Amino acid sequence: MNKIKIVTDSSAELTPEEIEEFNITVLPLSVMIDDVVYIDGENLSKVEFMEKMPLAKALPKSSQPPIGKFIETYDALGEDGSEIISIHITESLSGTVNAARQAAQLSKTNVTVLDSLFTDRGLSFQVIEAAKMAQKGASKEEILARIEHVKNNTKLYICVVTLENLVKGGRIGRVMGAISSLLNVKVMFELVGGNLEVLVRGRGMKPINQWITSLIETLKSKTNIKEIGFSHAAAFEYTNGMMQQFKEVFPNVPMPVRQTGPVIATHTGKGAFAIMYYTD
């Protein structure tokens, strides 16, 4: 049986400890700010990006790793006869998975490329589960089945407190954006099948906070929550306080809080936060 190795991209928001412990290969995404290209996590930190973004002349543009970098990585990992499962940010937010598919066809290594349909910790759920199974010597078929199970039992909710970047990125109309800004509208989305669907829209944070309270009540009926992850775009105080609300109800469930990377923050804008969980 060939050994299986796991590859993902930097939008997964894995910790350095997780990457090392589970032997995961992470290819960095990049972002261009005023014609200068930065590599996620290499020459641009999350904090630095949040400082640069509001000062940029235009909305930063994110980009997937070059196909050549994928091929180089796949070939190197497969030199010992290993096969690869490469799991990536949803196609609706990035061209990364398409670049990976093209590279897989050109690589000397046997590579299976998957669209996670998620990002951030929602993506990491699949990556970590796959990596754990690979370390235990599971077959590719067993790992793929587990990934599909995790994907089907994952939820990702994201709250955008300003629609400015969504307007600039063409994801909502300018008229809607202007009205929402004038009325201080906050929006809670769910990422479903790679697409953002509106769950709650209202003036100020009160409707959002009420929805979060109802989510906690809903989760009380579930006894098999594996992780509840939180991420934010320069909104640590609010997100950490929200996490404490969940922790009081689910003290034994892992609840990492991470600042999201440049690719996601570009879409959401400053102040956004996300709640992600999966059940088994």
Keywords for this structure?
globular; Hypothetical Protein Tm841, Chain: A,domain 3; 2 domains; 13 strands; Rossmann fold; alpha/beta; 280 residues
Protein model, in words:
- The chain has 280 residues and is an alpha/beta fold.
- It has two domains: 113 residues, Rossmann fold (3-Layer(aba) Sandwich); 126 residues, Hypothetical Protein Tm841, Chain: A,domain 3 (2-Layer Sandwich).
- It has a six-stranded mixed beta sheet with strand order 10-9-8-13-11-12, with helices on both faces. The chain has a four-stranded parallel beta sheet with strand order 2-1-6-7, with helices on both faces. It has a three-stranded antiparallel beta sheet with strand order 4-3-5, covered by helices on one side.
- β1, α1 and β2 form a beta-alpha-beta unit.
- α3 packs across α4 and α5 packs antiparallel against α6.
- The protein is globular and about 55 Å long.
- The relative contact order is 0.16.
- The model has no long low-confidence stretch (mean pLDDT 90).
What's this, in brief?
This is EDD domain protein, DegV family. By secondary structure, the protein is α/β, with parallel strands linked by helices. It has eleven helices and 13 strands.
Roughly how many Å is the radius of gyration?
A: 19 Å
User: Can you list the strand order of the major beta sheet?
Assistant: 10-9-8-13-11-12
Structural class: alpha/beta
End-to-end span in angstroms?
A: 27 Å
CATH topology of the largest domain: Hypothetical Protein Tm841, Chain: A,domain 3
Number of helices: 11
The helix content is: 40-55%
H and E order = EHEEEHEHEHEHHEHHEEHEHEHE
This entry's quaternary arrangement is single chain
Unreliable stretches: none
Protein name: EDD domain protein, DegV family
Pfam family, one: DegV
InterPro entries: DegV, DegV_C, DegV_domain_contain
Keywords: Lipid-binding
